[in-house]
Amino acid sequence: MAGGKALSKDLIVEKAVELLGRQGLAAVTLRRVATELGVSAPTLYWHISDKRELLDGMAEYLLRRGRTDAFDRPSGGQPWWEWLTERTRAMFEAMISVRDAPQVIAGNRPTPDSLAEIDVAIGVLVDAGFTPADAQQVFFVLGGYIGGMALEWQQEADREQADVDDRELHAAVTDAERYPNLAAAVRSGVHREPMETFLFGLDLLVRGLRAWHAERAAD
Question: Where's the DNA-binding part (predicted)?
Answer without folding.
Answer: 29-48
